[in-house]
Amino acid sequence: MSSSPLTDDGGLSSSGTTHSLYASSMQEFKLFETQSNFYMIGWDRSGVYRVLKIDRLDPSELNISQDSTHYTKKECYELLKRIHEGNKATGGLKLVTLCYGIIGFVKFLGPYYMLLITERRQIGEIFGHSVYAVSKSEIVALQNSTLQCNIANSRDENRYKRLLCMVDLTKDFFFSYSYNIMRSYQKNVCNYETGHVLYEKMFVWNEFLTRGIRHHLRNTLWTVALVYGFFKQASLSESGRDFKITLIARRSRHNAGTRYLKRGVNRYGNVANDVETEQIVSEDVPEDHPMQISSVVQNRGSIPLFWSQETSRLNLKPDIVLSKKEPDYEATRLHFDNLVERYGNPIIILNLIKTKEKRPRESILREEFVNAIDFINKDLPEENRLRFLHWDLHKHFQRKTTNVLALLGKVAACALMLTDLFYYQVTPAMKIEGYMSLSSSSDADTGDISPHTSSDDDDSLEKKSSRSKNIAYEKCDVKPPRLQSGVLRTNCIDCLDRTNVAQYAYGWAALGQQLHVLGIKDVPAIELDDPLAISLMGLYERMGDTLAHQYGGSAAHNKVFSERRGQWRAATQSQEFLRTLQRYYNNAYMDADKQDAINIFLGTFQPEQGMPAIWELRSNSLSNGRNGEMSIAKDERPSWGVCFRRF
After folding, report:
1. From residue 625, how far is each of 442, 604, 628, 630 by CA, in Å?
2. What pTM value is reported for the model?
3. Quick one: which of 127, 245, 308, 454 could link to 460 by a disulfide (CB 3.0–4.6 Å)?
4. Are 126 and 426 within 8 A, CB to CB?
5. Lowest mean pLDDT among 15-29, 149-163, 256-270
6. What's a BP term from Gene Ontology annotated to this protein (predicted)?
């Protein structure tokens, strides 16, 4: 439905100036209701007010229209007053709630529901752009309370609503109105995108919930894009210079779920527990000074084979089963093709699982994983072949003389030599030109700041840097940019505990290089006992615990970190045992409902009248059945342009 001037039962409309593109984002909204419609009023910091109308007379259909008029505060008040007068016979216009964005719309068996953010809290700031977490959300039924609907109050409908509420939006979901938080900093600089395409990225968890309103309005002005994972910042100092570390983990919505119910790869090449981790380092400088920024990205994800473990209430360690062997490893190949599209070459695989066991479990997957990599590499040119390193972390940790973190740090340093990291200098002129402003608008203009005709990324970035330098800051010494091409992909069995240790080692090695390229340190390395390394370890430990709770049901096992801090071994063993029990209980007794809730939220299962309910199926066969995992859509495959095969 296209946007049109808003009218109501009173037959009133208002005129004003219209614009095809909106200069700034709306961050606060008020929701009003009459018996026949909801009205949402939104305003931006420039004082422009807009109106959204949502029909309530047919709650089984999503009928939304946006007033094309831009109002002043006074004009908007007058409009609401006229709507109230026109609806006095049926109770008039009533305020429902103040809110901070629409999460989306969902329909089970009866009417549509609207999900709103009613409270938020700021958790950080990236280059002047605020990042928020959800403090409170609300589900509002579109159906008028005077209309009778047996389905709306049915037992199944209420059970679906309870399932949806199991996805706790106040934990580990975050968003920004003006920064594309679902994308790495390098992607935002190299290939700026806005609008619809951002919601279709693999890290936006409410893509399905916002699909209806986005398709109706052809913009994303009223919605927020929720990312699920981890966000934390720390302000540190070195040699008298202040800088900020931002650690972001973005969890993929594809093949998403819980530990034993989502393992391995699906037929589309999506792996379980696929998480992108980005480490950003930026120096704190006055606004009229150039800002130096460096970022590096790494990846974790389940072993890309068809394998499973049955949830068992009697066995803490269920057997690992290779459920399907593909002779051509097509799904595994698809997975690595997608990694190349996301990050470029080379793809470096760090496999941390056990090599030898009394009873083969992990080693079953190790052998098949090696076979898959060898098979795929046969068809690739030498320079694009997958780089595979097997490193049994458990075995090395058992050797008391081995410094696991130091050895992993050497592996990480080698990976960084192959991929490099991203470095970019933002001059004051760039800030004026809007290179750091990534606010969303209509989809009529993608706003790509990268000239797609160029074939050289570095040249393109240098041109942008020098152009801005000449405009407003001629004395600024602009350093040439650096680009990361390729990624380190780490896995163990769960991609939680051992993987998090390895990811910290990579972050530690990268931090030394990032501080060096920013000119804060003279050498591209920091010692493990350096206060900076210890502070970084705390960030990665918190991230590991958060990601482990999401996928595994307990905090991460942190033996390596505990030993590094000199924690008493007996206390560590007691803590590890309790976490094992917590993980076991959640996996055996809670994960089925949690998986159902995730499938409802993501739209991988959509309830239908006359069809079995999701709790009746209670089977992971959903991932390949009628309501199975969504495929990798064309609009999710990046158009790299100038940053070809790089992010």
Report:
1. 36, 10, 5, 11
2. 0.85
3. 454
4. no
5. 15-29
6. phosphatidylinositol dephosphorylation
